[in-house]
Amino acid sequence: MATNFMIAGACVCLWAAGSPAFAQPIPISSGSATLPWDGSLSSFAIAGSNSQGNSQFMSEYYQAAKGGFNGGDTVDFSTTIPVTNAGNHPLPETYRGAQYQAWVTGSLTIRAKTFVAPPATGDGSTFQTFTTSFSMSGSIGAYATADRSGTPLFATGVVGGGTISATYRVVGNQYVIAHSGGELLRFVDGGNLPPPWTTADIGAVGTPGYAYQGPDGDLFFGGAGADIWGAADSFRFVYAPISGDAAISAELGGESSTQPYAKAGVMLRQSLDPGSPEVILDIKPDGGIEFMERSVAGGATTFLSGGSVSVTPMSSGVSIYQYVQLSRSGDTVTASICTPGSGAYSCQLIGTTQWMTGAALAGVAVTSHDPTTLNDSYVPADMPTLETATGTPVPAPWHYTDVGAVGTPGSASVSNDTFSVNAE
Length: 424
Description:
It is a single chain. The chain has no helices and 31 strands. By secondary structure, it is an all-beta fold.
């Protein structure tokens, strides 16, 4: 029985295009950046490494912290930090072990996990600190001269994530940035994805994608590529192998792209070949739902059914927060979407299709519909959970598992809105 599981995830990780050759970005594992309350001169110093050596980057810039918000507001700390020499002097930069005194250019795009500020009744003498996780993607270039002319010393993409903290004075139901501080961004090492998860770019994506587990366990993933459509796909895939019946579900927190045909969702796929047979259930930035299938290798992709969900425009794209699920039982794949509510979920069946049996890959997929830029997405609070069994899967947000040394595995199923749970 294919059983259902949910993906929760959250923080975020992004990166912008690097060199024209679309080299793999450098993962940032440590460092910090500050955004002063008054927008005065500040800096970041971040570090990371890959197989080609250690790198350290600096920037001096003018960028202010978020000034304030009201209790009950949905707060978004997302921003863009310039990579520049606002102090009017060259900065020490290390790229793959080589050291430079350089004039730099570029930017870091910070995408923060939103939160709701609690209602307040402060008198101006109390303070409250808010902390949330973020993902970062960016590009950094360096030149030998202040006019940034000629051949760059280096150009690279960077990607990472961490936490943002800021302290606010509470005045009535308002939170006002404390005049002695600002926002502090701390970068942490996201490390590799936990087993059984693997990630890869599929097809000719252009800008390389990424996947990153944030400090709160969130899955941040981003991909470029032309599309998931036609006879061949190009996108970023976070996946695990399956051999029989299975269900994959994810709570999509949001997307950064506003390109009409960008998309993020859950996918079943026979292989990593761009023209592999696949089934996808995705949500586009306008809230449009797509349930699509490629039934044979190299064949056309068919739109099966769709619908729409409500999305909320944010400074960093759109907020979605919908559960998407694909479940396979035998050769039947069922697609459904569930919307969280007040203590309940409102679920809708999107459709079913006949697809292949046997070994396949299940996971989450994202494409920007533009090879020159990324579509950044995230799954809040946890990595995807993949469960396999026999029978008919239970719908999202429900899932089941054996607890302890049960001996004979149990099962769960649903038929005509009636749940059946079996245990020895």
